[in-house]
Write a structure and sequence with these properties.
heterodimer; A: 114 residues; mainly beta; six-stranded mixed β-sheet; 11 strands; globular; B: 115 residues; seven-stranded mixed β-sheet; four-stranded antiparallel β-sheet; 0% helix
Chain lengths: 114, 115
């Protein structure tokens, strides 16, 4: 119940295209869903996050779509650029005795071709 | 505000040696997490501090691992009698809870290689 399943494992997109990464979870107690971007040799950096009472959130070229009934959420990167080439992780968290530890997906390695 | 810093960035050690990593969180953040990330995987939770109190430890944190956060500022993670399976990136994250959810800010990590 603690797992977050992420797909695809890797993704190749042409410059200007749309990149879509999907995540699914089991635990309905999760109440915060962030996406992180990680470049090689660097720590994860927060990209965008959503709460389950919102179905969509957009920040610049990045959009999260959230389907509470299906227990799924996805990241859409519009007008993908070579600089977006990185590994993307979805995560989920819930407050447990004051701890908000994140449960991460396994990551999606995105390559945007110039 | 220079973000979360971690030292060293890289550590190579021989099996059986002890290693210690340091994390300096963002200055006003009272919450600090340690995660471990192996190649091709997402980070996995190890332990959590609120101020100086260690409030949760994962089952991943065997008794060879110990973490401290004296005075609620920087934190250290020590691994005793290292094993090859300990090779991973060790990530520190800090946060300040200002609402119902929490955003964690990650450091660059310490990459450990046990030979």
């Amino acid at each position: 119940q603690q797992q977050v399943k992420q797909s695809p494992q890797s993704l190749i997109v042409q410059k200007g295209g749309i990149s879509i990464i999907n995540c699914a979870y089991e635990n309905t107690a999760f109440d915060y869903f962030p996406w992180y971007q990680q470049f090689p040799g660097k720590g994860p950096a927060l990209l965008i996050a959503i709460r389950p009472d919102v179905s969509e959130k957009k920040e610049g070229r990045f959009t999260i779509s959230f389907n509470k009934s299906a227990k799924q959420f996805s990241l859409h990167i519009m007008d993908s650029q070579p600089g977006d080439s990185a590994t993307y992780f979805c995560a989920a968290s819930k407050a447990t005795s004051g701890t908000y530890k994140y449960i991460f997906g396994t990551g999606t390695r995105l390559k945007v071709l110039a | 505000d220079t973000g979360v810093s971690q030292n060293p960035r890289h550590k190579i050690t021989k099996r059986g040696q002890n290693v210690t990593f340091r994390c300096d969180p963002i200055s006003e953040h009272n919450r600090l997490y340690w995660y471990r990330q192996t190649l091709g995987q997402g980070p996995e939770f190890l332990t959590y501090f609120q101020n100086e109190a260690q409030l949760e430890k994962s089952r991943l944190l065997s008794d060879r691992f110990s973490a401290e956060r004296p005075k609620g500022s920087f934190s250290t993670l020590e691994i005793q009698r290292t094993e090859q399976g300990d090779s991973a990136m060790y990530l520190c994250a800090s946060s300040f809870l200002a609402g119902p959810q929490e955003t964690q800010y990650f450091g660059p990590g310490t990459r450990l290689l046990v030979l």
